Amino acid sequence: MGRRRSPQEKKRLSYSKDRRNWYGENDKSSRKAIALRKRLRHRAARHEVHQELASVIGQLGKADELFVTRRKPDYWRKWPDAQLGAYVMARLAVRARRGISEASTEQARIERIRRATVFDHLETPSKGSLHY
After folding, report:
1. Region (Disordered) spans which residues (predicted)?
2. Is 60 in the same domain as 101?
3. H or E element: which one contains 10?
4. DSSP 8-state symbol, 27
5. Domain check: are 71 and 61 in the same one?
6. Structural domain of residue 28, as residue ranges?
7. 110 vs 57, which has greater pLDDT?
8. Residue 132 — pLDDT band, cuts 50, 70, 90?
9. Which end of the chain is more exposed for a tag (fewer CB within 10 A), N or C?
10. Are residues 93 and 104 in the same domain?
């Protein structure tokens, strides 16, 4: 059994390890959406091959050439969700820009979260900026 963590340590770990969906879709729907995008991409590739083969029926020499020169199909790539710390910092910056709350108050909160969060290599915010 591990040692007990303080509430402050739990908060730091939460900011660093928890994730939020920034893409705009429901976080639960990602399971189905990822599979759907893969299916659609593979279906499009099969459709393209079928069309090319139908256009060269009866020209066997050209069909062999077709498979050698065919381009690689486009693909869809998954993107990881954002760290909770980065997400909260961005939301606080939006609040300050829209005038919902005092910019200096939000800047202090952003700095406190920045100190508590261990950022991934992809999500390193610029220091002292409300434009995260």
Report:
1. 1-26
2. no
3. helix 7-17
4. G
5. yes
6. 24-78
7. 110
8. very low
9. N
10. yes
pLDDT of residue 105: 94
Q: Which of these, 112, 110, 120, lies nearest to 81 by C-alpha position? A: 120
DSSP 126: P
Q: Determine the pLDDT at residue 31.
A: 83
- Give the pair of three-digit tokens for residue 128: 């002292």
Quote the longest CA-to-CA distance of the chain: 74
How many domains does the chain divide into?
A: 2
Element at 67 (helix H, strand E): helix 60-69
Distance separating alpha carbons of residues 94 and 21, to the nearest angstrom? 17
> Do residues 72 and 45 both lie within one domain?
yes
- Per DSSP, the residues of 72-119 read PPP-----PPEEHHHHHHHHHHHHHHHTSS-HHHHHHHHHHHHHH---
Separation of alpha carbons 3 and 84, rounded Å: 24
Between 57 and 50, the more confident residue is 50
Are 69 and 110 found together in one domain?
Answer: no
Element at 41 (helix H, strand E): helix 30-55
Q: Do residue 94 and residue 124 come from a single domain?
A: yes
